[in-house]
Amino acid sequence: MARILTGVQSTGTPHLGNILGAIIPAIEMSNDPENESYLFIADMHSLTQIKDANTLRQNTYATAATWLAFGLNIEKTLFYKQSSVPQVTELSWYLSCFFPFSRLELAHSFKDKSDRLEDINGGLFTYPMLMAADILLYDADIIPVGKDQLQHIEMTRDVASRVHAKVGDVFVIPEAKIQKDNMLIPGIDGQKMSKSKGNVIDIFQTDKALRKQIMSIQTDSTSLEAPKEWSSCNSFAIYKLLASDYQIAEMKRNYEAGGYGYGHAKQALFELICEQFSEQRKLYAYYMDNLEEIDQALEIGAKKAAKVANGVLDRIRGKIGY
Ligand code: ADP
Ligand code: TRP
Questions:
Q1: Can you tell me the distance from the alpha carbon of 250 to that of 270, in angstroms, rounded to the nearest whole number?
Q2: Residue 179, Ramachandran bin (φ over 0: left; ψ between -120 and 50: alpha; else beta)
Q3: Cα–Cα dist 84/102, whole Å
Q4: Is the CB of 45 under 6 A from ligand 2?
Q5: Going from the N-terminus, what domains does the chain have, and what CATH number goes with each?
Q6: Which among 100, 101, 117 has a CA at the least distance from the CA of 109?
Q7: How far apart are the first and last CA of the chain?
Q8: Of 6, 13, 3, 11, which is closest to residue 209 (Cα–Cα)?
């Protein structure tokens, strides 16, 4: 039985790209009876960028509500907030003292962020040590992450080995499992859907706002009567990720025949999203109206996680002389 652990940043309401590209596949993996899975909301990492308490809280709730609405099983997966197990900051400190400053200076993500962001704080610099602690604190074996996080996993393995070289073996050395970007969900402008590009589809809005967002998908100016090219259409590109083979074939025929406008195609996409995610949209709204249920769900995970964390901390404290 492998212990799989991953963290998700809580930077806003998850969009269709996050849901299809990351959340649904992760839930499928966590349901595999061969695995034991840990999934946490990295709300301490979010503090490097978000300093407004309400925003931080709201993002955490929106992220948690999405995972719960998409069927995360909290009996099977330890689901918790990073900040609910503050033991992680103690381990992070120990790890920092075993890791060379010059190595941290080589982190790509720090360089990238310090070029882009205004608030370049110390937390951004020591971010990889908190991430290493997230992993080592739970004896995790496998860490599913995107390519951009690979260096952080290498640093985790590196710092664990450095600790072992000085004080003897104490940690489980984890392995990264790189998630392929095989499902790249395009946004309303045809580019990769991303919060930072402002091109997302947020399925959790009201019907009216969702419809408006879908109607704003960028399409060309071919007239309603003329036949249309489905292969280069941004609306079709999203439709085909959700529709059945039959629905896809039907829409292709409509494009090719002419007399079918982009407005019709977008309306079909809107209806498909409403139909396919009707249960999840209801559940999301339910959780956002009943935040105490989200708190309870996360608290169950935090209690279990704290037990594991305390065991690992006891091991390391003794080794380093406390
Ligand atoms: P964003 O680009 O909106 O800030 P994140 O970088 O927070 O999204 O991504 C969170 C997760 O969602 C990652 O696992 C990422 O691979 C996945 N993801 C984000 N956007 C897409 C997309 N357009 N298509 C597929 N997966 C995506
Ligand atoms: N840094 C990760 C990201 O931005 C989130 C994260 C924090 C994480 N701690 C982790 C991922 C531990 C895996 C394991 O996506």
A1: 16
A2: beta
A3: 31
A4: yes
A5: 2-185+291-320 (3.40.50.620), 204-276 (1.10.240.10)
A6: 117
A7: 32
A8: 13
Q: Please give the pLDDT value at position 295.
A: 98
In the DSSP assignment, the letter for residue 192 is B
- pLDDT tens per residue across span 239-285: 999 999 999 999 999 999 999 999 999 999 999 999 999 999 999 99
DSSP state of 23: I
What per-residue confidence (pLDDT) applies to 181? 63
Q: Do 211 and 236 touch, CB atoms closer than 8 A?
A: no
Structure tokens at 310: 């305390």
Identify the residue whose C-alpha is closest to ligand 1 atom 26: 21
Residue 192's DSSP bridge partners are 186
Closest CA to 177 of 27, 34, 3: 3
Confirm whether 319 is a catalytic residue.
no
User: Can you state the angle between helices 122-136 and 150-167, rounded to 10 degrees?
Assistant: 70
Catalytic residue among 195, 240, 304, 319: 195
Token pair 């395009």 is found at 186
Out of 145, 181, 195, mutate this one to test ligand 2's pocket (max ligand atoms within 8 Å of CB): namely 145
DSSP sequence for 259-281:
S--HHHHHHHHHHHHHHHTHHHH
193 in ligand 1 pocket by Cβ < 6 Å?
yes
* pLDDT single digits (tens) 20-68: 988 998 898 899 889 999 999 999 999 999 999 999 999 999 999 999 9
Q: Which residues of the chain have pLDDT under 50?
A: none
Tokens 């596949």 belong to residue: 25
